[in-house]
Design brief:
The complex is a heterodimer of chains A (570) and B (88). Chain A is of the alpha/beta class and 570 residues long. In chain A, 49% of the residues lie in helices and 14% in strands. The longest helix of chain A is centred in the first third of the chain and has 30 residues. The chains are: A alpha/beta (570), B alpha+beta (88).
Chain lengths: 570, 88
Amino acid sequence: MIKGTGASGGIGIGTVKVIKVQKPVFERRRIREPEKELDKLKKAISGFTAETEKLAAKVEKEAGKKEAEILRGHLLILRDPVLTAEIEKLIRGGECAEAAVEQICNMFISVFSARDDELTKQRAADMEDLKSRLIHHLLGLDVIKLSPLPPGTVICARELTPSMTAGMDKKNVAGFITEKGGETSHCAIIARALEIPAVLGAEGIMSAVKDGQRVILNGDSGEVILSPKAETLRRYVLEKENYDQRKELLKNYRGKETLTADGDRLSVLCNIGNSDDADKVIAGDGEGIGLFRTEFMFMDRDTAPDEQEQFEVYREAALKMAGKPVVIRTLDIGGDKDVSYLEINEEENPFLGQRAIRYCMAHPDILHQQLRAILRASAYGNIKILIPMIADMTELRFVKKMTEKIKKELSEDDIPFDEHIKTGVMIETPSACMIADLLADEADFFSIGTNDLIQYMMAADRGNSDVSYLYSVFKPSVLRAIQHTIQCAVDKGITVEMCGEAAANKLITPLLISFGLEKFSVSPSSVLNIRKEISRYTKPEADKITARVMKMSTAEEIKKYLTRKTGTKE
Amino acid sequence: MVRQKLLVINPEGLHLRPAGIFAQEMDRFECEIFIQHQGSKVNAKSLLSILTACIKCGSEINIECDGIDELDAMNRAIELINSGFEGL
């Protein structure tokens, strides 16, 4: 089995067609009549332009305007006065047009490839494509001439350029597999737009496959199975049918509001770990960021990110979300998350020790810096502050007092921020749950972190398999804790969201609806699933299921009942 | 010469399409126009030069216009960047 990156979801089953790119061969020669050569370049450019416009129109029709932009981008590049001026300069110096195009394009390719930025790196692939096609035009060769593809073709190539995929008859393409390229490459974008499964960056694929071979690819896991056995094939045919059905269904939930069956408006947001993930939130159709875990920004490095660096990251996320909520959780380290340079004391019981807000109160300079960065970024979008591991009112007051102080500092320095920024608390300790009514008086919102809440409610280490029988969201005590917390928030009229794994657990969706949860925060890939699940229940139906469940005394009983009643799995 | 600090707000940053639009618009002006970003200074009339600067959403850039129509050019640059290239 060969493995690559799953770049466009779904199962592809079909017959291999290997595509090899012919590099244009030309003879580098000195020229004596540059005017003639420049004329040749001009003709090639107009041929290139006509061809690209045709391809772009085709892509636009098949996949959409956004996807056609990449090809139209090639036209924009070619219109760059710097590019043409440089090529012409070489030609005037006696270089033939082909060599001039190659040299100048290569120069930009090496500049783009050397950049750290993923999007800029992709421009190198665009330049390669442009270079090769322009040289083809100069040589008067046909650029792309794909023989017609039979239905069920799986395209295998070292790399697929925009012009190659544009020329294909994609109704007959069952999948793409390439050696090079990743999730954000052009091929991935086109594949996703056309909903064709794709595995990219599958090293070794080109030497392993031959035309006509049967192949299965999984565009989610990145697996490629060559010449599958009959049994495997049957299994995947079934899986493909399931997948395609589910996908069709989920499409009905994209771009829609999250509503219960009787029309209550809820929302599904996303959990992310860095500002780049904001793109995934948009792609997954999340209604905002319900949890931005900032500790990842502090990990795998030697020094802490300073205020400016943090500010830029938070601002980027806020701008990308364009007014949708961005809930930023302050540093949650300690426990199982160690950061070498932060000098976290060695403790006998780190999960009961100085983690999260406790650490931050002991190191107020770190919290001050982070809150200041968050406040500054709040001028650029809808940012909220979330404090982790609250066990006591003094912790919330400490943070609110510091926030007020920073607001004053910023006002004095004329630095913009959101004066009405909201501060919420994570409910993940039994103590916070027990005083939820009091916390609701002083916090602007709650976010229930079920992963830790279960562990602290049950006093069971979630990593310890000997006590794993205790670690379950279906435990009556855990469900009561969640119900109580949500009830306190509802009574006091503050918003309540859930950002733990339980929010994405379809078995408890009806319970959460009945309890009165307003915001579900899940991974970007689960948004549509949960939106669909919420739409299945009316409030009275959810209440009925919940009333039954809350009378049950064991997790096993509850889980069994919910599995039967909801007809879903965890 | 005029100079102005601006914040790039469109989600894709100054990448292919927005950068292309920006370069083409800037090319209409007589004056010299540069973008400064994190130590690099690039020709704002050249799409490829802009791309080499890796300008993301949330990047702060300095626009510099120098020449006879520098004020008009700057106004257009501000308008484009602040609009987030919406509807273009």
